[in-house]
Amino acid sequence: MTLKWERGARCKRFLARAAVGLCGMLTLSVFAAAASRATQDSSALPLAITHVTVIDATGAPPKSDHTVVITGERITSVGPATVARIPAGARVVDGHGKYLIPGLWDLHVHVPFDGPDVLPVFVANGVTGIRELGRAIPEIEKIRAAGAA
Question: What is the pTM assigned to this prediction?
Answer without folding.
Answer: 0.59
